[in-house]
């Protein structure tokens, strides 16, 4: 009962106001290309320094929640992930918007985000100490195998040829090696440029690969950007709730994936959403619709994204290890406030912790009316804006967003070059998603492999390090299943077609 009393403290007028303001600010920042959830939290951290700790945490948690959800607006309406977590939302959200269902896609995104956020908050409330123990068992080798498992999802992300998907991922892995190596500090592929020492910045690459090709296509085609709805349909809330009820198992599975991936420090929302999208596609009886405007694709990615918010706080609070990059910023704010993370977060500092968790529930629920309201006008605005105004506006936001990440003009050059290259590659069937996947997973795989190899050399058996741990063997089994299942399904499809042809 004491815990419920602490959580009820989040219902005070000032905490409710902070939750509403935080979610609204997060949605707006998250919707702008380049301004990630991490940046949204980091920019507004100084505002919280004079606040009591629980108020500061509630506001930062609300900003984080709103920004993760806000990334879906740009993903659905202009095919540009507002945040890295929204990469997979573009796969089906944008095709839905192209056929005139952008309002439904935004409503689905809102409902899915609320459900995922609630599941993440429940996990933080009930499973924090237990699930945090899993994170402790993950060493470098497990992270290497986890990255390899992520790369096997290319078969699900490739539109058409799986071979072209692997070519794209290989290019992404190559990009991830640019700059100073993760282990050993070797300088690679910089061609004498000091700007490339820091490597290819992921958000810059993301904006370039997803946004620039859209801008080129907008300029090249005379037709309207999005198909306007034939009649006024409001928020299509009843239709969205119906689709959510049909996809309830998909939403639940995706939420669990989001929580589980989030407690593995460093994995982040972008990997979680790609994993859940891949699993949703594999489990669906209509997998061929994915990538062409399938509502289940939006449900899978958006429930995962917001489940990551609550799940990421588990290792942050219990172990002091940030589950995601925004968690690292919030952890820094906690340390500034004079709080230490660890078991005392749930004992000595229980009031602050459980008031924050209560605030997280409130922020997630507030997201429903705010998201539906803002989303409705966002879709109407994007549809009605003429191309002559839309293209320069998006181009300006991408340039500003890219520059703001590191205040480095060279990042803008990298963004434009990769964008043009991405547009050319897409003409030949190599899509941006496998490239981004390789870029994200490359450093994780490299660091895990090199550290595992050094540990193996030191212990006298490299093979035992990589293939002798139960957790590693479990992930390897998942990799084998992930590779074999699409091949088995394709073979089964060919056999049924041949049988039907014979009859």
Automatic annotation (TrEMBL):
Coiled-coil features, chain-numbered ranges: none
This protein's record includes keyword Membrane: yes
Q: Name one Pfam family in it.
A: TctA
Tell me which species this is from: Modicisalibacter muralis
Which named protein is this?
Putative tricarboxylic transport membrane protein
Which parts of the chain span the membrane according to its record? 16-45, 57-78, 104-131, 143-160, 166-183, 195-216, 256-277, 354-379, 385-405, 412-430, 462-488
Q: Which domain of life is it from?
A: Bacteria
Domain (DUF112) ranges: 16-437
Sorted alphabetically, the keyword list is: Membrane, Transmembrane, Transmembrane helix
